[in-house]
Specification:
By secondary structure, the protein is of the alpha+beta class. It is built from twelve helices and 14 strands. Strand 6 and strand 7 (78-82) form a beta hairpin.
């Protein structure tokens, strides 16, 4: 509600909560305390609308380590803090397949029920909820879980429709990370969103990068690969080299295991796609597809294509020599 400002004084290693009077242009300090974690300042802070509670998330430069959530009282006292081992089960960690520093990004965080509860949804849809007054984690009923997911979906949907390309890109990233499959219809039009979000160097040239398009493609591919692949393939001819590289990587990663390509995988239909793309008039697409086919078909491919020892792409020649 813009009535409070949480100050993170790096030099003084001090945390302050101030109330703002916009008309008088003044700030009144409500409390001050030493940093909640010794080594680093918090990465993010969430202030209740009445200013009585503050929740600190992660530590700058050290996400996922030390205390990842700290609940503070109306006087800045620590009510409860959590390290990552208290929040995620071993199954969560194995399912998510991420390093500790990325546990909460991208993620959705919000107060609920007139600031009585604080909820979060992070990768793979992992959902947690806390009592703001005590900082204690509460058991989720199906009703509460559904409410939290509906609110997260509402907020992410609004991001996808935002006028800012950066927000649309972030929204697509959140939809993918939180596994909000219901937003697939909203993501499909974004495959044609060619808003330039940055520039990237590829093969010695700088290209416009369509961050919204790439993020939408990644989200759709994670939801339903078979439906997403032809939609992504259709965008290759109208994209820059840098964007094509990312779109091709999204398709390639659908067939990746821990140690590279999975032969005999459930995504074997991709082989037909790569064979088709080998005939693309776009040289970078054709070369990428050749590498993908070679990886999937392994040694047999090179026995059948000895001419690839003279291929223009160094990666193809290297793999050919390695197999021989």
């Amino acid at each position: 509600n813009r009535q409070y400002v949480f100050q993170n004084a790096w030099r003084d290693d001090e945390l302050n909560l101030c109330q703002v009077d916009a008309e008088r242009e003044t700030r009144t300090k409500l409390w001050s305390r030493p940093n909640a974690v010794e080594r680093w300042s918090p990465f993010a802070a969430y202030v209740a609308n009445d200013g009585k509670h503050v929740i600190l998330r992660d530590t700058s430069c050290d996400w996922g380590f030390d205390q990842v959530l700290v609940f503070l009282s109306d006087q800045g006292a620590i009510l409860r803090s959590y390290d990552l081992r208290e929040l995620l089960t071993q199954k969560d960690v194995l399912d998510i397949e991420f390093s500790a520093d990325a546990w909460s990004y991208p993620g959705w965080f919000s107060f609920l029920h007139d600031d009585q509860l604080f909820a979060l949804v992070v990768r793979k849809g992992i959902t947690l909820c806390f009592d703001v007054a005590t900082g204690e984690q509460i058991d989720l009923t199906e009703e509460l879980r559904s409410e939290i997911h509906a609110l997260a979906e509402r907020d992410v949907s609004a991001m996808l429709d935002d006028s800012s390309p950066r927000n649309r890109e972030a929204g697509a990233g959140l939809a993918e990370s939180l596994k909000i499959r219901a937003l697939a219809p909203d993501l499909i039009p974004l495959l044609q969103d060619r808003s330039v979000t940055s520039s990237r160097g590829t093969s010695g040239e700088m290209c416009d990068f369509y961050g919204v398009q790439v993020a939408a493609a990644k989200a759709l591919a994670s939801f339903s690969p078979r439906e997403a692949v032809p939609l992504i393939e259709a965008q290759l001819s109208n994209s820059t080299r840098a964007v094509r590289y990312e779109l091709l990587n999204i398709m390639q990663n659908l067939d990746n295991g821990d140690y590279g390509f999975r032969t005999n995988s459930e995504f074997a239909y991709l082989l037909d796609v790569w064979h088709r793309l080998e005939r693309s008039p776009l040289e970078d697409v054709s070369q990428f597809a050749t590498r993908a086919v070679a990886a999937l078909e392994s040694a047999q491919y090179f026995y059948d294509h000895p001419q690839d020892l003279e291929h223009t792409e160094a990666d193809v020649r290297y793999r050919d020599v390695e197999v021989v």
